């Protein structure tokens, strides 16, 4: 079990704010405004601005819920707002990825992630000047993952 805590102010996200995991072969940049994480077969991501799950360049449906429903088939209801703090939960033994928001596990977002392949936390953004904080919390019981105060490294987008 691997858990990362992400602090990312909603006003610093821009239009394609994605949190997920990738292999070392995932592209690190692309041209245009697009969801980079999940944009290829080497990455899986949750786009926070519209709650879409992405993998292999396809929107897989809203998260949580509506998994497997194509983006164009979904209702036009607005997405649920995602707060500043999100936990990324990767279970390498079962090959699953999920997220924790407001101290609540939202369920599996992705399953059947590759076994025996290194996966890395990945964040993509199209907003210049965004401050994104990422911290590895290690494994352990889910109850110990909330409300901790530690020093944060800050990632800056260009």
Automatic annotation (TrEMBL):
Q: Name one GO biological process term.
A: proteasome-mediated ubiquitin-dependent protein catabolic process
In this protein, which residues make up the domain named B30.2/SPRY? 1-141
Give the UniProt entry's GO cellular component terms. SCF ubiquitin ligase complex
Q: Which Pfam families match?
A: SPRY
Q: Which InterPro entries match?
A: B30.2/SPRY (IPR001870), B30.2/SPRY_sf (IPR043136), ConA-like_dom_sf (IPR013320), FBXO45-Fsn/SPSB_families (IPR050672), SPRY_dom (IPR003877)
Domain of life of the organism encoding this protein: Eukaryota
Q: Which Gene3D superfamilies match?
A: 2.60.120.920
Protein name (database record): B30.2/SPRY domain-containing protein
Which organism's genome codes for this protein?
Answer: Oncorhynchus mykiss
């Amino acid at each position: 079990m691997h858990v990362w805590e992400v602090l990312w102010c909603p006003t610093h996200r821009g239009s394609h704010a994605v949190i997920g995991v990738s292999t070392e072969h995932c592209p690190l940049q692309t041209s245009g405004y697009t969801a980079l994480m999940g944009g290829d077969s080497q990455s899986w991501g949750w786009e926070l601005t519209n709650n879409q799950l992405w993998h292999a360049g396809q929107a897989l449906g809203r998260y949580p819920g509506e998994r497997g429903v194509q983006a164009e088939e979904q209702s036009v209801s607005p997405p649920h707002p995602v707060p500043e703090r999100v936990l990324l939960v990767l279970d390498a033994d079962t090959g699953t990825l999920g997220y924790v928001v407001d101290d609540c596990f939202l369920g599996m977002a992705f399953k059947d992630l590759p076994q025996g392949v290194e996966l890395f936390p990945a964040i993509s953004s199209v907003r210049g000047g965004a401050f994104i904080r990422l911290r590895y919390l290690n494994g352990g019981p889910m109850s110990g993952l909330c409300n901790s105060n530690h020093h944060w490294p800050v990632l800056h987008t260009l």
